[in-house]
Amino acid sequence: MLQLSGAIEQQQQQQQQQQQSMQPYIPPMAPSSFDTSNDIMLMRGGIGSPSVASASSETNSPIINFPASQQQQQQQQRQPQQHHHHQLEAVLSKQKIIKRRKGVGNTPEETYTRVRAPFNYAEGYHYLFQHVRRRMGREDVMRICRALAMFRPSFISTMVHLTEEDLIYMEKCVQRTLLEYEKLISFSGTPTAVWRRTGEIVLVGKEFSLLTQWSKEALLDKKTFIYELMDNGSAVEYWEKYGEHAFSDTESSVYMSVLLMSPMCRPVPCSFCFTIKRDIFDLPSVVVGNFLPILGGNPL
Predict the structure, then answer these.
(1) The pTM of the whole model exceeds 0.85
(2) Which of 31, 81, 136, 226 could form a disulfide with 140 if both were Cys (CB 3.0 to 4.6 A apart)?
(3) Exposed, middle or buried, 149 (CB in 10 Å: 0-12/13-18/19+)?
């Protein structure tokens, strides 16, 4: 029995030696020069660490460019979206500016390049005569005609020497002036409106709309004249005072009382002052009017 058990143990030892001889030889690995933190950085694409750089230079292995992280990709995707958002805000701001005034262009460069023809003031005066004949009596019509005759000779003597290029430049000055007035009126809390020398409204402040109940769209989307918002007596008095000061000292303001009419034909009594602004040719360019309600007057 002892001999049999010894033979079995000897046979098992021989089998184990045969199995070890069949396995390939694996040399022992040298201790790694990378610590755990460097391994993690390498897996994440951080190839800028000193340990990784030294290891890559010693082994002369090619540098692997790992893809950008997910956070960087998201930032790159947000940049065109933010740029598009800024462009959209600029377009919306320009649309808002256009609604506040009746003008050409939103910047001085656009104003100077888009104005290519002089403004036709004759249509405005023709509409004035049609309006007063339709709404007023003979006496009021004659008073307005006499008021216009007061400055007509001075106006013609100045216009006769102007060329078409001068008239185009005159319109550019008007549009450039409206850009500046638009900023000033936005900072003021006084109901203000600006109109041409024919009375056509070209700029309206929000306070003026609140006072008269006339919306900016109703006043600027079509040709609307300031005397259309007045009653007959206020319109006649305005033209008389305008005729007196059209070619006089434009720095002084003219004061008067006026009765504005709301869209529902309700009177709005106001204290009114206007200033005539001249252009480089000493001609009336635009009129700036400020209105304040008269408390205790007729209700709106």
Answers:
(1) no
(2) 136
(3) exposed
